[in-house]
What does this fold into?
Amino acid sequence: MPLSLTDYLLWVTAEILLVMACAAILRRRLVYQFPVFFVYAAFHVLRTPVLFTIHLLQLQHRMGYADYFYAYWMTQAVSIVLGFAVIYEIYCGVFQHYDALRRLGGILFACAGIALLVLAVWTATAAPGAETPGVVRAVLLLERSVRVMQGGLVLFLFLAAFYFGLPWQNYRFGIAMGFGVFASIELAAVAIRSHMGESAAAACSQINSAAYSSGVMIWLCYLLAPQPALQYAGVAHHNDLEKWNQALLELLER
Amino acid sequence: MITTALLIAFALVVVGVLVRAVRKRRYPVPDLQALETYTRPVDLAAFRNLIDAAEEDYLRQHLPAGEFHTLQRERMRAALEYVRRTAYNSVVLLRVGEAARRDQNPEVAAAARTLVNDALRLRMNAMLAIVVLYGRIVMPGARISVGRVTDIYENLTQGLVRLTRLQDPAHATRVSAAV
It folds into this structure.
């Protein structure tokens, strides 16, 4: 099936942004800090040209639709697993600096994951199928369930950090934010697509691509932005100022 | 239709929380010299009295059941307000500790780490205490412990005084009065 110009533009935009995000990770030496996120981003950088090549070969009738279908879903399965691993990496990163909460990251991830899995299964069984065929319906249900879980995990993470008043490191905040934005927009799009059927397929596909590009754009912005300088309690600054004042007064008196 | 609406609502809630997180992210580090403008006062002795089991037993024995239940509900509401205040103050003190954690003076950094961990412990215990207190407002006759909120809060305020003494001894007394 040939894609529209908008589809190609969205595809290329996401790829360019992702390449830039990978470059920013390497340039800022964040690979050791976010190894899973880097693998996730690098995997997607490599995935897009592979899928694009298969798509072009399919248009030239040198490959069938089934080839693209299997290539997409096999890589999508890897992407989903890596996506959850990235969220887990952020959970651990947010809580690891606090003795009182060190174990909470893993426990919260597991508890939220189980609760959201139940929610995802419930929505999958309660969902109307519209007029979509069996395989597409199954794929949409899987996609929707994954987005429910990813969006929910990010939501739990932000709520927990908000409740405990934990400060966020800039990069970690950006990665979680990007994931949250694209998972929630994709969830809404897939839910509409499941409900309305084939008539909404093209629009929802473009919304999905735009959501993904938005997520990558958020990652890139946070990866490129300078880390804010660490703020210290006001007292230390006042004391420094007093010392400077004293030194200046002594200098003027000479 | 309902499932679709629920899923869209869920997605909107996620986006709403993310937007709120961006807005609320840049909070100022409280100035220790004006800490009382950031915190809410807590009368620890009065708070202890409200959740004291011996005090509760005394009232139970000397008041008619109906009157005891009414009074106990009022006491638990007051205790709930104190728990909320301690939980609120714990976030303020966490920010103070967080800002001092990477101080070059190892003593200051260690005191700040202790303050941060106590603040987080208090926040976790406060969450449970709030649930217990609501339960006790519904069932004033029940004997359920509120936990160690008062002890942890006392540790927390002592930790703050220790940190302030290291950073700015002149303000230690004033800071201790602010919490």
Q: What stands out?
A: Chain B has seven helices and no strands.
